[in-house]
Here is the input.
Amino acid sequence: MNQFRCTSMLASCAGVFLITAPISANTLDTFGIDPAETVLVTAQRHDTSIETTLSRADVITRDDIVRSQARDIKTVLEQQAGVDVTRTGGPGGQTSVFMRGTNSNHVLVLIDGVRVTSAGTGGFQWALLDLATVERIEIVRGPHAARWGSDAIGGVIQIFTRQAQGASVQATVGSDGERGTALALGGAGQSLTLSARRLDGFSAQNAQGFAFDPDDDGFKNRQMVGQGTFGLAVGEVQWVARWLAGEVEFDQGVSDVEQYAAHLGYQVDLEHWTVEIDAGLYRDQLETQTSFGTSKNVTRRTQGSVRAERSISDAGIWLIGLDGWQESGVNAGSWRQDRDHWGLWTAFDGQSGRLSYAFSARWDDDERYGSETTAQTALGWQATSSVRLFGNWGQGFRSPNFSQLFSPGFGGLFAGNPNLAPETSQSIELGLDWALSDQQRFTASVFDTEIDELIDFSGPKFQAINIDQARIEGLELTHRWASQTWSTQLNWTWQDPIDAALKQPLLRRPKNKGSAVVTRRWGNSRFGAELIYLGERFDVGQIALPSHTLLNLTANWQLTPQWSVMARLENLTQRDYEPLVGFNARGRSATVSVRWRPAL
Here is the structure.
């Protein structure tokens, strides 16, 4: 899609909504949440209003999570434009997240600034993250390698752990033998959250599955998150510590997972500069038992960064930074590898009258591949008090993970390839933000991404190789409206992710998807409905999976200032579908939670 086509599509989409004259400022008020006050840190690596950032982004707040009564992150991510989520079976099953049609390992995943993907697979274990421990989720679409380095081809998702205020206790029961508890304590700048969840589950696979066993596949999970801030004579220190242990059953197997992560940050304001120094560590151990034996995968990563920013008169903010991480991976009995990675970057963000701009460049050095240079530039134009246009061009890259490089495969099939080259990308995006009134907002984005040296398992023995190119065109539309009692959120995504060499669709990414969320407030209680549509998509072997639509209901009753009851009903119409070939989806299911917040 060239720039002319991008502009034409964007103008056409805006024309569909030209039914109301634009009014005043962008002050959409969704039940008291003003996006003008919503601050992003992931998009530009410094505090930026979500309404002025020059990348398409969304923030899922703690209040959003409570309102939806979502039990796992799949539920909240699949309702976002440009984000596709797949899962093998029920809760706890392997979950993959695709952004703007790119691969699941093209999403940089951070938790409190710490990289948390596996050194072996390049993926993150989304299913194990308990939303009871999450404060907010920032989703930034498009390539951001020029500020973050490797992996950020499709976008960046950063999760911030919960900052509890006061005390609360929550208990949950539900379908498939679900039960869970969460305890949160916070005060004096410090916070602690404990959670546990367990399901008896259902059979992950059906008779078409490669390892079908009609038993129930359960899930257990325990987590602990602590964090806080404290001031020094000069500057402020922030700390976060996270621990997770889980057990996931699947047909003819079980996996045990344990994760540790920590982050320590120090920020100080000097005469002209604000300096931030960060250190983090991550450890992930996955042990899987099947009828073929036992496998063990371990990831260890330590990282550090220095970032400095200063205001340059009224022109804008200049940033410089240095990042580094050392990671090692082990696949017991197969391979043991490690590597170092360093990155030096700079950026300048500013505004002059109605024009805003953001420029960034980065140089990365990988111990195994040498250097990569990436750049990104964006311009925004405030056409009227209520209409803003922006354009964004950026590059990305991703170094192959250890499994793609060194895995011996299975009998010679699906083996790694130590001669792989890094994947690289270029993307262009044009966006429109339009405040139709003080209560409603419309956005549109068109994008075009080309990925070179895409890594795939192909050929006679399905060995890891670099294929010529992938091409992804797409369109995202969102509309939000709110009054004192009602709120609606609508989005639609069209995308065309193609393997340009084979002229085939990339797997597990639908061409069309959309969602509609309607919420009604009565006093201190809230009730909502969610409609989620997923279009046809293709799975392994280019097998087509038909489209389906799901209807979910939510309710939150505030009985007293201390007591509240919450409920969620999913798949109300009992839609029977396969999320992936050979795997079962969860049928109609419900959860009920009771929360107590003592008056302290």
In short: DSSP finds five helices and 34 strands in the chain. Confidence is low (pLDDT under 50) at residues 3-9, 11-33. Residues 3-161+195-508 form a domain with the Maltoporin; Chain A fold (CATH 2.40.170.20). The CA atoms of residues 165 and 186 lie 5 Å apart.
